[in-house]
Amino acid sequence: MENQVYQFLTEQGFQCDPYEFCGKATVIVSLRISDHVVKLLLVMEDRFLSLPKFLLLEPSKFGKLAHVNIASIEDTECGVVCVNAPESISVNFDQPLLLLKDSLERHTELLELVITDPAWNERELLREFYSNWLFLCDKEKKPLLINFSQPILQRVDVYEPLEKVPYGLHSYNVAHPSDSEISELSEMHFATKGLQRKLAGKAIVIPIDNLTPAPNSNEPIEEWYLNTINSLPDATLRQLCGKFGQWRDKHYWLVFTAITVDENRTWFAIRLDCEKRRTLPLSTGNLNKWRLTPISVRVFNQENVVQRGGGSTSLADKKVAVVGIGSVGSEIVHKLAAAGIRHLHLVDPDCYQIDNLYRHVLPQAYIDMPKAIGMVHQCHAQFPWSDARHSYKSLIEFSQKYPLDFYDLIVIAIGNPTHERFFKQYLLDNNINVTTLNCWLEGYGVGGHAVLDACGKEGCLLCAYVDLNDGSRGLQSNLNFIEANQDVMKSIAGCGSQFINYGAVSSAQTATMAASLAIRYLEGRQADSCKVSWKGDDNDVQSENIKLTHRYYHFKESLKRLPLFNEDCDVCNH
Length: 574
Prior knowledge:
This protein has 574 residues and is an alpha/beta fold. It has helices at residues 2-11, 96-116, 118-127, 129-136, 187-194, 221-230, 234-244, 284-287, 302-308, 327-338, 371-382, 395-401, 417-429, 504-522, 539-543, 550-554, and strands at residues 15-21, 24-33, 36-42, 54-57, 68-73, 76-81, 144-146, 154-159, 174-176, 199-208, 248-259, 265-279, 291-295, 297-299, 319-323, 343-347, 389-391, 409-412, 436-442, 447-453, 489-491, 498-500, 530-535, 562-563. It has an eight-stranded mixed sheet. An eight-stranded mixed sheet has the order 17-16-15-18-19-20-23-24, with helices on one face. Strands 1-2-3-4-6-5 form a six-stranded antiparallel sheet, with helices on one face. The longest helix has 21 residues, at 96-116.
């Protein structure tokens, strides 16, 4: 293979020399960039299943280069060049020589930028600060888990991991402030308060105004540390010395935070260890007794965790009631909480039963517990900043007890058209202005529906109940795919055990559709009333001789948001 590589790259105009590295024959490619001779060593593989890697030889002579981390491999100083995330490119492994050429061109383009454009290089070094910092850290050790977001000078407790606990939050050193807004049912709360974990020491948060690039692995961390401390504003340094520099300890965690590029914030840490209790070293003379270790940091705050999971902190203060915590409603609650909505009011009068297990998100531990309480516990356990609460009420009882216009949105997932229409009439009769989202699914996997009744907009829930034959207000939704007045219930053990036949996939799909619509509305991306449906196949209903509606056979707009307004609606035309 190395002979083919050498011949191919030479024919492409590259200057190549044979070389042996890590016991494998390979090549060195020499390039001229500006006034520099740049040598790239190919990391030879038996088969290239990702973009081939080239190592930069003698990287120190170029100074600090963005996207280049210095490492010692087989006693050779090399620069590990990052030209892409390994999984981000689909490579043609059947054409390794063309793949090599592509990779070499990418390496050349990047190195030309970082070598010839100092301003771009400096900006990229700051953008990639945390990645470069991780290169200094021991990959076998877990990061320091920090649960605070305020970039202010402060001191917080650091808790030791529990012994013989390899997984979960209990396996981390955790820096946790006493004034955290985290839920008391969150695992993070139990990880610090619930099990009386021992204190490992103190962490001091130090905000940096002028961040400099992370040191290379061949540079002393002590020099970078002292330069960073000395560059702090005088007021910060005085506060650091006066407030936190007086007590003595054997271990300190210094957690630094700074803005890098495009207003992005980074967090990283240094652990200081000493054999005797000493004050925090803030000068050269006090540092020689201490061992400094770069530490990676895992930020466990609302802004970072919610956004990293695809949620939005802009939804944190929205107030949403979800009435009906069954198979559809529980999925909706999960999706809304995952989107970043903290203030959820879960309403349901029923208890969780064994029969619910295979199409509900709650586990077996919640059997016989009210569904709303179980989902509140789940929200707090999985979503640390959740403020979810519950009510053991029906839709009608809920409407009479709570000020409905308090909510930004009320989601109704009870599958009872009579109660849903009654609730709508209650809102009309009492001039209550609140946006509602009704959703339901139909049996046998034929589909599901959601109706957004936006307050003050044209179109309402009752538009979805206009009888399309005569324009009167009907009893069944005109969105339905199964014709009315059919027995679609199934029974295993008589009347008391009747149920609608649908699976978890159908309920999850309906919930995802409804939750997506709810989030769009709360984010201001869906202002008008609308309706949306998804359509499944008719195999099961055909086997049960169940008739389907005209709409089912002609519906071709699955998951498309359609106008809700119906000109025959007696409410909208009043």
